[in-house]
Structure prediction request, 131 residues.
Amino acid sequence: MSILNSEEPEILLYIGSLIAILWGMAHIVPTSIVVANFGDISDDNRRIITMEWIGSGLTLIFTGLLMLVMTVYGYADTPAAIVAYRMAALLLIARAILVSFTGARTPVKEMKLCPLIEAAAAILIFIGTLI
Prediction:
């Protein structure tokens, strides 16, 4: 599997996975504050924003956990795991692009960081599949 030579190639997979998990938690924990910042909106809009904010966090957590579990159980160098890691990296890049054109264009600094954090996790994971 290795293109590059490294003693511990899994470290990049662990770091990328943990970034995704932690960033997902960082989405879910302040959900009520985020929704409240929208001010006086309808109950339907409040529910939709809540659903989307939590869904985004769960997507990140699931993606990170899937990669973490595959790595912990020693599957990192299997062909199926490599495909899964790279697909997860593509998902993170797609999310980073989406947020770049949406949330990152708001004055909220955390939203401006989101594409950078998700892209960093994706890059670490992709590089981790090369070594």
Q: What stands out?
A: Residues 16 and 118 are 9 Å apart (CA to CA). Residues 10-128 form one domain. The chain is about 75% helix and 0% strand. The first helix runs from residue 10 to 28.
